[in-house]
Each structure stands twice: as structure tokens, then as C-alpha cells.
Amino acid sequence: MTAASAPANSGRETPASIYLVEDEPEIARIVVRVLGDFGFTAEWFRTGAELLRRLRTRPPGLCIVDLGLPDIDGMELVREIRRRHAGACGVLILTGRGYTADRVMGLELGADDYIVKPFEPRELIARIRSILRRCEPHAGSPPPTAARVAEFSGWRFDTGSNALYAPDAEEFSLSTAEAQLLRLFLERPNRILTREQLLGERGVSPYDRSIDVRISRLRRKLESDPHNPKIIKTVYGAGYLFSSTVSWG
Q: What share of the chain is helix, strand, coil (3-state, %, to 5)?
């Protein structure tokens, strides 16, 4: 394992800590150097086992995961990170696998974003910053986020722990991306929100389906029939609408 840091020139008092698991040393050196150039601290791990051991002592702001690892399938590693640290850190897949099925599976398992190698350094940094902004508890949020628990349609959502409770009290742990998406809906119920608003970014590619995958994951938790949703409705040609009364307490 190696670590790298750069002068705090990004405006952050404490630069975000990023863990990279990548078995190719040359690629790892490039990623670590790019992260350092933009003011992040980075730790590099060659195997999934090394990363999981480090996570037991100190979770980072973000994990960057390669899918082709020597000791564990990268998809299983993403699943394990989410199981152990749901909502505690972001997950970005950085891989040579460009197949749509892999991209969808990675997002389904809880990754916040997916980048295919070779990558453009500035795009990598932009994606990382976007994930970290979503992970910040109150970044860009309107006043309702001061309330810690939202109730809707018999469900309860704790914004402090990202725990979602069903009407029968069953608990679901949400990923960072899922929790951020649900929070946006809860803060703006009964309003049509575009995909750009939900992603929090301008100029979203029409081929970027990550938000649709996250919507699908939330529906499978919230809806009795995800194919005929009653809470998160699709407004064709416009976006999505959260159809429920929300109370904060």
C-alpha cells in the first residue's frame, strides 16, 4: 500500500481521503498523481482484501474500485463496501469493462458512478467532486434537511443514518446515492424533477442512465409493485414526481 498527498490548494481545510484499489501499478500511479494534483489525499491498495482491512480502521470519503482484481471480483467488493459502510463513503468504479451490463450491475450494487478506462483526468476529478458533494450531509440542501426524520406513506427515513424504515418496521440501509436521491424527493414532494435536477449537474448526457438505475433501486424498496409505481412516478418527457405527503420531525 502507498499513500500520496498534495498541498491543500483545493480550498478544503481537510482534503477528502480517497482509497484506490487497483492491481496495475502504472495505472495506480497515474490515478494517485492526478488526485494529488487536485488536492486530495490518496491511499493505494493492490487487492480487495487490503482495502477491506483498511476500511475496518478508517473509512474514506470515497473508494475507487477496479473490477479486475486478483483476489476478489470487483462487483463483489462493491457489494461488500456497501454492506459494511452503507452511506458512509462514496464508491466510484474505474475499470476497463465498458459493457452496458457491467455499468448497470455496478450501479445496481450501489456504486455512485462508473468510468471506463482510459479516462480523462479532469473528468475523473469532476465525477469525484460530484460524488463527494452528494455525500456532504447538507451541501446545497434547503432548510427542510435540518429535520432528521421524514415520514411518508407509512415509511420513515432518517437523514442522519440513511436508514429507511418500512411500515412494518423493516430497516433498509441505503447507499449514498440512494439516500441523496430520496432526500431530494422528500424535500420537493409532488413536484416534477428533471433528471438534471436529480443528478445535480448540468449538461447530462442523454445516454447517462445512472439516475434511472437509482430510481429503480428505490422503487424496489418503496413500491409494492415497482412496475406500477405509486410513490415515485415517471412523468414521460419531463422527469419524475414523488407523489406523497411528507412530514418532518
A: 35, 20, 40
Domain extent for 147: 143-248
| Domain's final residue, options 135, 159, 191 | 135
Which CA distances in Å does 75 have to 40, 42, 54?
A: 25, 21, 18
By the 8 A CB rule, do 151 and 87 touch? no
> 21 and 125, same structural domain?
yes
Q: Specify the residue for cell string 465525477.
A: 127
Amino acid at 103: R
CA 226 to centroid of chain Cα atoms: 21
Q: What is the pLDDT of residues 210-236, one digit of tens each?
A: 788 889 989 999 999 999 999 999 999
Mind listing the pLDDT tens digit for each residue in 107-151?
888 888 899 998 999 999 998 988 887 766 543 344 444 447 999
What secondary structure does DSSP assign to 161-185, as a single string?
TTEEE-TT--EEEPPHHHHHHHHHH
**Contact by Cβ (8 Å): 45, 21:** yes
**168 and 229 belong to one structural domain:** yes
pTM over 0.70, yes/no: no
Q: Are residues 31 and 131 in the same domain?
A: yes
**Quick one: 108 and 159 in the same domain?**
no
